[in-house]
Every structure is written in C-alpha cells, then in structure tokens.
Amino acid sequence: MPIRSISPSRPPLPAAAAYGRLLAVTAVLFGPDMGGAAAEFARLLGAENAHWPQPPGNSSAPSIIVASAWLLWMVRRRHGARTRWAGGLSAAALLAGAVLAPLTASIAEAVGVVLLTVVGGALALAVIVDAGMAPSALGFIPAKGRRGRRRPTPLTSREGAAQAGMALSVSLAGFLVTDVLENWLWSLPWPRMTESQGQVLDLHGAVQYAANVLAAGAREEVPLLALPVVLLTAARRPAWEIYAVACTLRITPHLYFGFPALAVAAFTCTHVWIFQRTRRAEPIIAGHTLSNALAAYAPAAALVTLAASAAPAALVLLSGRLGRPPRLGTHVNTTARPTEKEGAA
Fold first, then answer.
1. Which residue of 39, 133, 189, 331 has the fewest CB atoms within a 10 Å radius of its CB?
2. Domain-embedded: residue 85
3. Alpha helices in the chain (DSSP H)
4. Span 174-205, pLDDT tens digits
5. 165 in a structural domain
6. Cα–Cα nearest to 212, from 225, 203, 199, 221
7. Domains: count for the chain
C-alpha cells in the first residue's frame, strides 16, 4: 500500500474519503451525544417538543457494539488471520458491549464509558491504517518509520519530556481562555443551560460522574481532534478548514450548554495548533484530563493552575520552541507496510 503524505510527488487522500471516514467515526462514537445535545439546545431556543430518542439500557453500549463490529470487520478484511489478537480483542469488546447493554447501574455506566474510550481510540487507529497511514500518525503510538520521517519524540528522552511540558502549558492556557470566554458568554442574555451538567447528561452516581470527567480527554481528543487533523492534512485541506471542522465537531456534543458551548472552540483551536506542530496527543489528552479533574473536584486549584500556565505558554508561543506545522514536501504520515519500491527509496 502506498505511503500517504502531503508530498507533491504522491496523490493526497481524496477529500471525500477523508470526510467519509471522519463522519462515520463521529456518528458511531458521538452520534447519540450530538443528537441529545442538539435536542437540548433546541429546547433552550424554545422548541419544547424537541426530543432525541434514547435507547433503553446502557448509554454507551450501542456505540461500543457498532464500533467493535466495524473494527472487527476492518481487522479481518485488512489482515485476515495474521492479527488474531486484534480480532480477538475486537470480538471481546463486542461481547462486552452486548453484556453491558441491559445494565444501567452507575458502575456499569462507568465501565461503558471507559470501554467506549478504548474502543474509540482503537477505531480511530484502524481507520488511519485503513486509509494507508501508520498508527503513529495519531500521536500516541511510537513510530517505526524510516529515517528522516517526522515522528513524535518519545517521552523517555529529555527533549521529549521538555516538548510535552511545553505543549501541556499551552493546552492549559487554552482552557484558561475557554473559561474566560465561557464566563462572559454565561453573563449574556442568551439561551444557556439552566440545570447542572450532571442533571442534563443524566449522570446518576459518583462513579459514573468520575468516569465521564476523567475519560473525556482521551475519549474526545483522539477521534474529535487528532483524527480530523490527520485525515484532512492527508487530504491537503487548508488550515482554516481543519480548524473549522475540529471546532464544529467539538462544539456539537456540548450544545446542551447553550451559547456558552461556543467557548470550547478556544481550547480546540489551541489543541489543533499543538498537534499540528508536535504530532503528539499525550499533552492535549493530559491537559484536558487535568482541567476537567480540577474543575470538577478542586475549582479553586483549577483557577490557580490555569492562571499559572499563562506565563509559560506565552514564552513557548513567543519562542517558537514547538516548531511549525509540516508543509508541502514533508512527509506527515507513513504506512506500517511500505512497498518494496518505496522501502528502497
């Protein structure tokens, strides 16, 4: 299979293929969330009869079942029996989703959220590989490409740790800007959420609440940010389009906030900026998780932490230490199995 890159010497990924894969993954993993959020937003605008049907049982089970079945199909179609362990894990996730389907207790919902996060990351990886790119393109698996290829620096090195720290500070600064914008939007006389987030999302129990808070970083940043950036970059889409798509995908499942949901565009743009320059997902996942955890369990510490990130983030931005996004002529993504001709190049 040929290497996918944005090099002029090789054809880009067709835009229709990139958007088709992206929309399919989004529908499977976030379709119920986006539908429910859109219905809640419509109610805030005055449409009292707006309703998104929620299937009975575990809220994560339908997405787990469909995503696992799709993942199993892609693994078997691409690799056959050569990757039995991947097929076995996909089948196990499918079975687990079926077992969870009728269970609605707080612990079962929490397990469903965690399992959906894992399956969602695996599905994003499979889609990337199916499109002709290496799993390392998503930024959290070490690359095995040939010399000269752009790949994330391992966290075990001093350079990698420094880069991750700088990226984390910029991520937290993005959440600081998001909080400021959200508070401003909340003060305006526009339709906004009138209940607590837990009530709107029907999070019944401390365990389910904790799972949603702590898993949101990994669950959202890979399929809603890394995946669209990688696919649309491989399709040679312009930067403004990549930012617009990433913001749309992020705002939609948060529409239950009302107009304050627009504030999430701030940290989304920050994370796109980071990912384009570092090709690393760990710092943005860590920043999202830390921000959520502090906001949910230590609001005062959250304000101090986010404010403290402003100065380091400004230094990183002014110094340009995180580099620049790849340009035409540089390889962004590689496949795990290049052809013989490409391997000899």
1. 189
2. yes
3. 15-44, 61-79, 84-100, 106-130, 158-187, 197-200, 206-221, 227-234, 239-251, 264-278, 282-297, 299-308, 310-319, 340-343
4. 999 999 999 999 999 999 988 888 888 888 88
5. yes
6. 203
7. 1
